[in-house]
Every structure is written in C-alpha cells, then in structure tokens.
C-alpha cells in the first residue's frame, strides 16, 4: 500500500492507494498507473490514480463526476499530506491518454474512473494541481453528494421492494372483491334462506362484483315486488378463504358454463357450496356469485350497507 486519498466534497475518506492498476488491485481500492509518476509530489510529476465506480459496497470514485473545478483532494503518502486543487475535468475515450503526460514545472495528479456509471465506455479524468496545504479554499466545505450513488441504489431497491409487496397484496386481495347483494334490509349475518332466488346458477344467495349490476338487480326486484327502489338496500360483503369450499368457478362464458346454466337454472346444486361465473345477460365480464350451502356463509364477511343513490355515488354507508 502506498498511502490514502481523501476527497472531502464527495465524502471519500482515507481510501487506500495500492501499487499497480490490475483488476485485483482495483478490487481493493485505488490503484496507481505504473507508467506515471509516484504520488509523492514534486515539480515535473503527474501521478495517475484509477479506481472503480458504481459499486454498491465500495463507493470509491462513484461520485467523481460531481466534483467541480476548484474542489480539492488530499493524498496521504508516507509522512506527507499533499493537497491538490482541481483545475481540469474531462471525459475521453479509453485510448486518449495525451492529457496524462507530465507538464513542465507542474505537480499534477489525475483521478481516473469509468464513465458513465454502468455503461463504462468512456473515462472520466479529474486533474488537480498541488497547492499549499495551509491554503483554505472556499469550496472545501461544499458537499457535492448529499444524495450519492449508494443512496439512489438503496432508494431504487426500496421502491422495487415496495412495488413488489404492493403487487403481492393486490394478488392477495384480488380474489376478495367487494360483492353486492340486494335485499329489503341490512343483513349482517346472512343465511341461505335470506336469498333463495332462482337465478342463472339455480337457487342460491346471489352476489355480484359489479355495483352497476347490483343497482340493476335492485330496480328489477323493486319492479317485481311493486316497491319503491329507495326501500331496498345493497349489502356489501367480501368472500375470504374460499379455497376451503367446494366450488365451481367459470372464468369465461365457456361451453361448460352454458351447459351448467341450462342444467341448473331453477334448480339447486348439492355438490357445490359456491358457484362463480359470468352473467349471461351482460356483454361485459361481470361476475356473479351464488352461495348454495350454509357452510359458504362462514366465508362471507359483512362490510356495510348502501342504498341505491349512495351506491351510485360510490359511498354512503347507512349503518
């Protein structure tokens, strides 16, 4: 190890400098190009110090592109502390090395890293000229990387994790849509006898995942019973843990779905506690749920109760 480098403006603190520029060396810290001057200062010298960027565990030169002319860096070599003021920043092709030559009468150090981070088809060269250690420059206390590369990596990872959790939650609740049932009263603990209607799936307690269809059912029921629609209510429920139920679920209007409707319409179904499928009279994919056994009601959770006007507006809890 040759020494350490410190770059206050981007919070690089005492990163070790090693002899050589092999991949092994650069995996440890900052390297030194053997063909360049040793980083010990002096007139007619130009030391070149390369390091990686874009590494999550080791920041190294990741934030080198945030430095400005006038910023400084320090080399701590042997018992020396050398201070360099940046006066040249350039982006070049990997084979453009002319700016790394010694300049007569100058004491230079160039920091090198791949650029841009993650693509690495260019090289970022940040060159500083030695200045007196006692000279305090105005920009020395400026922080260039309050939100550095690691911060954005961690933020991005956190957001991806959050999106993943939200997606899993959506999948979890996707099978637990709000379901709507029309009745002449609030039914917090429904029973099979509360909904012995003869629908497309035969006798059962009918619900739908469509609030619009629920309002249509309400109008139809009011018309059949010669009631005022305002006297009827829409009870809102949610089904949970239906995997424990014997069920028949039709996701589309298939041949089996049509056969079931023709066979069961107006009749019961002793084999299934729950039947789910599209509504025959709807062009859109609107689903109806028919609960056919008392066991099925153990999985039905009451949420709230709406009247027709309130349900159209998307709210209006009555209870």
UniProtKB/TrEMBL annotation:
<dbReference type="Pfam" id="PF04203">
    <property type="entry name" value="Sortase"/>
</dbReference>
<feature type="active site" description="Acyl-thioester intermediate">
    <location>
        <position position="114"/>
    </location>
</feature>
<keyword id="KW-0472">Membrane</keyword>
<keyword id="KW-0812">Transmembrane</keyword>
<feature type="transmembrane region" description="Helical">
    <location>
        <begin position="151"/>
        <end position="173"/>
    </location>
</feature>
<dbReference type="GO" id="GO:0016787">
    <property type="term" value="F:hydrolase activity"/>
</dbReference>
<dbReference type="InterPro" id="IPR025051">
    <property type="entry name" value="DUF3990"/>
</dbReference>
<dbReference type="Pfam" id="PF13151">
    <property type="entry name" value="DUF3990"/>
</dbReference>
<keyword id="KW-0378">Hydrolase</keyword>
<feature type="active site" description="Proton donor/acceptor">
    <location>
        <position position="52"/>
    </location>
</feature>
<dbReference type="InterPro" id="IPR023365">
    <property type="entry name" value="Sortase_dom-sf"/>
</dbReference>
<dbReference type="InterPro" id="IPR005754">
    <property type="entry name" value="Sortase"/>
</dbReference>
<keyword id="KW-1133">Transmembrane helix</keyword>
<protein>
    <submittedName>
        <fullName>Sortase A- LPXTG specific</fullName>
    </submittedName>
</protein>
<dbReference type="InterPro" id="IPR042002">
    <property type="entry name" value="Sortase_C"/>
</dbReference>
């Amino acid at each position: 190890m040759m020494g350490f480098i410190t770059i206050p403006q981007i919070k690089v603190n005492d990163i070790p400098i090693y002899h050589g520029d092999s991949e092994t060396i650069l995996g440890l810290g900052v390297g030194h190009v053997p063909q360049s001057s040793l980083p010990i200062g002096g007139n007619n010298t130009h030391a070149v110090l390369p390091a990686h960027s874009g590494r999550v565990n080791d920041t190294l030169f990741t934030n080198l592109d945030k430095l400005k002319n006038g910023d400084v860096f320090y080399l701590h070599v042997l018992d020396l502390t050398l201070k360099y003021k940046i006066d040249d920043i350039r982006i070049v092709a990997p084979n453009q090395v002319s700016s790394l030559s010694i300049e007569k009468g100058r004491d230079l150090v160039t920091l090198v890293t791949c650029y841009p981070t993650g693509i690495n088809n260019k090289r970022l060269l940040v060159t500083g000229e030695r200045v007196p250690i006692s000279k305090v420059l105005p920009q020395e206390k400026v922080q260039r990387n309050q939100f550095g590369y690691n911060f954005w990596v961690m933020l991005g990872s956190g957001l991806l994790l959050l999106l993943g959790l939200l997606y899993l939650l959506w999948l979890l609740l996707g099978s637990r849509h709000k379901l709507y049932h029309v009745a002449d009263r609030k039914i917090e603990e429904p029973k099979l006898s509360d909904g012995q209607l003869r629908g497309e799936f035969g006798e059962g307690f009918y619900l739908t995942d469509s609030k619009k269809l629920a309002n249509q059912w309400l109008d139809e029921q009011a018309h059949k019973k010669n009631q005022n629609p305002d006297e009827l209510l829409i009870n809102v429920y949610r089904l949970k843990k239906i995997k424990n139920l014997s069920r028949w679920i039709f996701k589309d209007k298939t041949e089996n779905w049509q056969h079931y409707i023709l066979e069961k319409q107006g009749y019961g179904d002793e084999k299934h506690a729950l039947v789910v499928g599209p509504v025959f009279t709807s062009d859109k994919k609107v689903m109806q749920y028919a609960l056919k056994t008392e066991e099925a009601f153990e999985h039905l959770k009451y949420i709230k109760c709406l009247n027709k006007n309130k349900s159209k507006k998307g709210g209006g809890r009555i209870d």
